[in-house]
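Regression test case RT-17, inverse folding.

Input:
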């Protein structure tokens, strides 16, 4: 008996989450410039400002298969670089070193400190670092604190000592920091709550005492002592260290008293070990006077001879706080930006805002604040009403934006003939937006202009070998050729020497100073705009295809002859003595790039009508002799040979829309073939450049870019489908692309080949709640401070209509239902008045609108409808644990049936197919029901064995449902065929005994994986033309992922073996086991971790070889298999 499932999925993240847990800045690369490291819960990214543009550039991004809890940087005195301290659910204290030349992090230490998982006693909640890098304190939520002493050995290598404990029972730590003390014993400060006195009290206690506690590490005695503790306001929540200096050994060199800035509700305080107490109120706007203001982020910025603090409140306002020598706190309004988790100030005058949600911002300082300030030096704090008025940004200017789409509340997959688009409802209140995500490379358009007619081909060329930039832009039409000059102005050239009355087949700068034009009736050689030579084919014979390098030229004639030329020592193009007759019509030719140290390309690749590719030699001793041949799946209409990632590659465009790439070694042998279907049209190829590396352009139904920067990627380019294109290199535009389509010429650049998802946004009025698609429209229900319904046209990207609800009305969900009795579709909107997060409300009802958002009527409900779907020409609503079926009435919706479900508690999701309904419950997972038309009743017949907390759900087929819960799990549940047949007989189901107080039958848990994000929506469809159907999902923190089904058992067996081998040989940066991570709440089942498997491409060759030996496949075969899964689906 086989226990192998027929279903196995490949989980792949298309876009990583955006919600950050923290950021820090330091000299991680060992150079003088600063880098920013930002971390989400499973990824570490290194950013650096580009000094020429001021933009933030991503240097490195590594996924961690663990849950990162905290990060911080530290530098040992005398060391040339910063190290990164990381804590995670692995239970290890991890120290990482950045190795930029090798594009990796090196794990220096993984010191175990607690059990794995996230626990309140695990000292990984916060990291506090001594400014001089001598000690690192790890703090738990409760009781435990560990201090690690850091040092260097005689080889200048980082060392770490065994941890010292600083534990206090029944004490909660709110915030912990390291203090500046020059080179005295390291000190730390912590906001703590001692709940020991209240532990046994039965009643609620709201007046816990908060204290500021100072800890000192005695380096001589190697112990940690609690040096001082004092009471601080009960609402204290944030700390910042105060510089201490100046001193010869000071970490800052800035004059300061040391100690800590303590932030509480509406107040900022200064405290130190010597009893100094200074306080100042936080200014408020007029609208904030009745609300508490908390500091949620801040930074201490040290300059030569001074320092100041930037504190951000929960409303986004930033205040500049100063502590002058006269021991007063001075506070002033600075600017207002989105609420951040971290604020980073760089020495170069930039500010990085790591926002809680939405886009991340990079600012440049214009000035350091206003003249208007508030000061206080009172020891006994008495609240003052300080007010300020917000203004536009005055002190900082935004210069770069890093797009972020968290949080995502809903998403819709829309597929047309050429592309797939994902619409995501994202953001909160002022940052609310509808995000359009499209799989493809975004472009920056430089210019677009009209052409006199439809163009077929386009080339750019230099006039001499020594030219740095292109001089001519040559465009080929049906019977003519247009020549334009490339310079400050693009103008037509009338004296180029080119035959403008011929349709050009190819343009090539050849030899030292010549230009070759190949057209159907001959070859023209031009030098200094003069025709110096012209080669003509025999009478009645035409040139059909050509290929060239700077020193070689090959053409095919209409009589199937192949003619080969080379440039001699006198810089003349000379025909080789013998021609070669091919067995069938030649459809494509390609001469590869000339390798360094050689004077000619060693191979000529020929494609013919018989679907054969031949590799011929160009060696003078055996010119045009066959080296190797290979059959193809289609006729090769375009061939391009170039170096990619240091290897010579033959790129083929076939007439059936398939692109193929195979590698060509020095002996002429072909290996490692990769293919991808690009569209229904024949594929034409061209070449462009990016940072000195070749990129292949492919033109079919869409324009594609094939790059190999360590990993082969085939990505569509988000530009209108081009007929032809090529590289464009001028003084003003390097690494550009020029293309033609219809009667247009366009010049653009592709800035980032790694970013293959384009992101556009449309601002919404309030926090989006639900997206409902109907034809070419999206109905967007916003439900933040105010509620709205907006109708978005996906063809024009405009809002066609909108409607506003009353202030006390909150939209719960919306749906489009086609009522069979009316023969029309309507928008149903579930609304609750005076709704609170606890679920309390005053009234609940359904608004019914026409498709133009005109109100038809209102229907009062007994409870809130959290889900609405269309079912057999009626509307099916889930209200608490009731299913209610409504039909359209004149004055309100008419209830046709109500089914009470005693096995569920609160229905939050419903999906339906045919006669079957699937409901997702807030606590009781998924239940399948069948509708008995005679009894007019919904009857549950199968449910889950686990009490999952459903957040999203979708039926994959009649017997299968995919869902997600609030703990970050994704699962696939299936009803067996036998149970499904039984479920169709509702009479038989009613006679069955309930199993474990649930339905008579149980669902099979087919697949399960932990994605560490709360799935908010699922969609099923195609992401690429000709690809396989997949399931896409969106996560609350901004994750976009895809579940790809394997089609064969051999693929399932291979990838499970590869994943198992990689788990044995590839350690995680934090020491977390991948199997434990992906099976956080339940063992991973029948899902291959595609994110983990794809890291195989980044491993060193020795490790790849070990894994390949374990799997029993070559390294090339493994990389090909990994490529195929993505290529066939995305």
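Golden output:
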């Amino acid at each position: 008996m086989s226990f192998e499932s027929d279903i196995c999925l490949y989980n792949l993240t298309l876009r990583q989450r955006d919600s950050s847990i923290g950021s820090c800045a330091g000299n991680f690369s060992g150079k003088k410039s600063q880098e920013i490291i930002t971390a989400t819960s499973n990824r570490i990214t290194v950013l650096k400002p580009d000094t020429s543009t001021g933009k933030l550039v991503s240097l490195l991004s590594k996924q961690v298969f663990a849950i990162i809890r905290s990060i911080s940087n530290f530098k040992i005195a005398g060391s040339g670089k910063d190290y990164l301290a990381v804590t995670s659910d692995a239970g290890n204290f991890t120290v990482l070193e950045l190795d930029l030349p090798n594009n990796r992090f090196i794990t220096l230490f993984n010191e175990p400190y607690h059990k794995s998982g996230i626990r309140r006693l695990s000292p990984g909640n916060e990291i506090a670092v001594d400014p001089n890098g001598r000690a690192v304190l790890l703090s738990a939520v409760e009781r435990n604190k560990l201090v690690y002493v850091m040092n260097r050995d005689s080889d200048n290598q980082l060392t770490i000592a065994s941890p010292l404990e600083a534990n206090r029972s029944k004490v909660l730590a709110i915030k912990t920091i390291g203090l500046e003390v020059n080179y005295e014993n390291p000190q730390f400060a912590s906001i703590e709550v001692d709940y020991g006195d209240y532990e046994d009290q039965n009643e609620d206690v709201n007046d816990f005492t908060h204290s500021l506690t100072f800890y000192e590490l005695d380096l001589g005695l190697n112990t940690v002592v609690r040096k001082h503790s004092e009471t601080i306001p009960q609402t204290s929540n944030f700390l910042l260290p105060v510089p201490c200096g100046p001193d010869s050994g000071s970490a800052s060199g800035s004059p300061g008293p040391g100690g800590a800035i303590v932030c509480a509700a509406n107040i900022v305080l200064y405290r130190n070990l010597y009893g100094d107490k200074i306080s100042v109120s936080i200014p408020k706007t007029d609208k904030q006077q009745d609300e508490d203001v908390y500091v949620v982020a801040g930074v201490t910025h040290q300059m030569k001879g001074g320092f100041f603090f930037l504190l951000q409140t929960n409303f986004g306002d930033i205040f500049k706080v100063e502590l002058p020598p006269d021991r007063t706190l001075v506070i002033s309004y600075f600017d207002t930006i989105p609420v951040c988790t971290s604020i980073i100030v760089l020495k170069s005058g930039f500010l990085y805002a790591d926002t809680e949600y939405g886009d991340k911002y990079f600012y440049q300082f214009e000035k350091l604040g206003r003249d208007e300030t508030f000061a206080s030096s009172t020891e006994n704090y008495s609240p003052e009403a300080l007010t300020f008025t917000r203004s536009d940004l005055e002190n900082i200017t935004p210069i770069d934006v890093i797009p972020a789409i968290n949080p995502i509340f809903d998403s819709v997959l829309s597929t047309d003939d050429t592309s797939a688009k994902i619409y995501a409802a994202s953001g909160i209140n002022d940052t609310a937006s509808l995000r359009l995500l499209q799989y493809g490379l975004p472009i920056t358009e430089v210019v677009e202009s009209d052409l006199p007619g439809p163009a077929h081909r386009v080339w750019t060329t230099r006039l001499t070998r020594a030219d740095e930039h292109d001089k001519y832009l040559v465009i080929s039409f049906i019977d003519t050729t247009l020549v334009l000059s490339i310079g400050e102005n693009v103008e037509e050239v009338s004296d180029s020497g080119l035959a403008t009355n011929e349709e050009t087949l190819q343009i090539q700068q050849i030899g030292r100073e010549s230009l070759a034009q190949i057209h159907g009736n001959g070859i023209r050689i031009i030098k200094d705009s003069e025709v110096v030579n012209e080669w003509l084919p025999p009478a009645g014979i035409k040139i059909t295809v050509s290929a060239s390098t700077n020193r070689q030229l090959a053409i095919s004639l209409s009589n199937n002859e192949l003619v080969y030329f080379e440039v001699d020592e006198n810089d003349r193009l000379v025909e080789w003595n013998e021609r070669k007759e091919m067995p069938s019509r030649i459809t494509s030719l390609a001469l590869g790039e000339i390798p360094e140290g050689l004077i000619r390309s060693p191979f000529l690749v020929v494609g013919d009508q018989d679907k054969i590719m031949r590799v011929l030699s160009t060696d003078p001793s055996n010119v045009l002799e066959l080296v190797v041949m290979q059959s193809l799946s289609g006729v090769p209409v375009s061939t391009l040979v170039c170096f990619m990632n240091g290897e010579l590659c033959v790129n083929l465009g076939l007439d059936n829309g398939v692109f193929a790439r195979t590698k060509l070694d020095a002996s002429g042998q072909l290996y490692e073939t990769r293919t991808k279907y690009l569209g229904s049209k024949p594929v034409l190829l061209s070449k462009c450049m990016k940072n000195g590396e070749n990129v292949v352009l492919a033109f079919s139904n869409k324009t594609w870019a094939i790059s190999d920067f360590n990993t082969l990627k085939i990505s569509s380019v988000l530009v209108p489908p081009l007929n032809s294109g090529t590289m464009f290199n001028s003084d003003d535009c390097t690494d550009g692309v020029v293309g033609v389509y219809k009667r247009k010429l366009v010049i653009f650049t592709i800035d980032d080949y790694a970013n293959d998802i384009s992101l556009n946004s449309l601002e919404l009025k309030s926090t989006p709640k639900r997206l409902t698609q109907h034809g070419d429209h999206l109905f967007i229900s916003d439900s933040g401070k105010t509620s709205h319904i907006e109708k978005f046209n996906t063809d024009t990207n405009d809002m066609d209509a909108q409607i506003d609800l009353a202030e006390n009305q909150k939209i719960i969900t919306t749906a489009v239902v086609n009522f069979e009795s009316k023969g029309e579709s309507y928008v149903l909107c579930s609304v609750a008045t005076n709704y609170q997060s606890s679920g309390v409300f005053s009234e609940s009802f359904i608004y019914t609108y026409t498709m133009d958002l005109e109100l038809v009527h209102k229907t009062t409900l007994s409870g809130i409808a959290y889900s609405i779907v269309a079912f057999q020409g009626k509307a099916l609503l889930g209200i608490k644990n009731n299913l209610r079926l409504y039909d359209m009435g004149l004055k309100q919706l008419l209830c046709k049936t109500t089914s009470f479900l005693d096995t569920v508690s609160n229905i939050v999701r419903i999906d339906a197919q045919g006669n079957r309904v699937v409901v997702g419950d807030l606590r009781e997972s998924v239940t399948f029901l069948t509708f008995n038309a005679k009894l007019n009743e919904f009857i549950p017949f199968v449910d889950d064995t686990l009490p999952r907390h459903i957040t999203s759900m979708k039926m994959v087929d009649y017997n299968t449902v995919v869902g997600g819960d609030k703990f970050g799990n994704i699962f696939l549940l299936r009803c067996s065929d036998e149970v499904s047949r039984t479920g169709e007989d509702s009479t038989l189901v009613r006679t069955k005994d309930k199993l474990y107080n649930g339905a008579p039958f149980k669902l099979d848990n087919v697949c399960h994986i932990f994605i560490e994000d709360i799935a908010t929506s699922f969609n099923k469809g195609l992401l690429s033309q000709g690809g396989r159907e997949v399931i896409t999902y969106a996560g609350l923190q901004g994750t976009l992922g895809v579940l790809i089904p394997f089609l064969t058992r051999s693929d399932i067996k291979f990838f499970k073996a590869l994943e198992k081998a990689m788990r044995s040989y590839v350690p995680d940066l934090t020491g977390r086991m991948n199997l434990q991570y992906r099976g956080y709440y339940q063992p991973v089942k029948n899902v291959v971790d595609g994110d983990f498997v794809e890291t195989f491409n980044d491993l060193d060759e020795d490790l790849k070889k070990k894994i390949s030996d374990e799997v029993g496949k070559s390294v090339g075969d493994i990389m090909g298999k990994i490529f195929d899964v993505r290529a066939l689906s995305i």
